[in-house]
Design brief:
Length: 154
C-alpha cells in the first residue's frame, strides 16, 4: 500500500496525514510505503490545536499489526506540524492495545515546527495510553522532534 503526499487538516485536529485507523480491532497492514504526508492544523488555528501522526494515526485500534518482509514498511519524510502540540511524525498510536510493528524503517520524519513553532514529541513514533506496543526488526534514523523523542516518544 502506497500513501504519499496527503494532508490531514481539520477544524480542531489533523489526524493521520496518510491514513487514520480508528475504533477497530485486528487491522493488518502489510508492505506500507508511507511518504511525505502531513497532519496539521490550518494556519488560522488556535494555539490549543494539534496535529497527530504525520504518516499514520492509530486511535483506539487494538490488535493492529504492521508487518511484512525486511524493510517492507517505510515511514519516510512525514510531518506532524502546526498548532500547540504535535505527536508522532511517522506514526501516532493512542488508546490502542497490542500493536505490533515489524520490519519497518522510520526515516526523516518530523514532529514539530511549522508556523506556530509547535512542540513536537516522537519524530518517528509516538505512543500514548497504549499497552503492549512491540516494535521488532525496525530502524529509526534521522527523525526529528522539537521537544523530545526523536526516534520514539512514549
Amino acid at each position: 500500500v502506497t500513501l504519499g503526499m496527503n494532508v490531514a487538516s481539520e477544524a480542531g485536529i489533523g489526524y493521520g496525514g496518510g491514513m487514520l485507523i480508528q475504533n477497530t480491532t485486528g487491522a493488518v497492514l502489510t508492505a506500507l510505503d508511507v511518504e511525505q504526508n502531513i497532519a496539521l492544523k490550518p494556519l488560522v488555528s488556535m494555539a490549543e490545536d494539534f496535529g497527530f501522526g504525520g504518516g499514520v494515526a492509530l486511535i483506539n485500534a487494538h490488535d493492529t499489526q504492521i508487518n511484512g518482509d525486511a524493510g517492507d514498511n517505510l515511514f519516510y519524510k512525514n510531518v506532524a506540524s502546526t498548532g500547540d502540540l504535535v505527536l508522532g511524525g511517522g506514526i501516532y498510536i493512542a488508546d490502542s492495545d497490542r500493536v505490533s510493528i515489524a520490519n519497518a524503517v522510520f526515516g526523516a520524519n518530523i514532529a514539530g515546527g511549522g508556523p506556530l513553532s509547535a512542540r513536537g514529541v516522537g519524530g518517528g513514533l509516538r505512543a500514548f495510553e497504549s499497552s503492549m506496543l512491540e516494535v521488532t526488526n525496525s530502524a529509526f534514523t534521522g527523525n526529528v522532534a522539537s521537544i523530545s523523542g526523536a526516534a520514539m516518544g512514549g
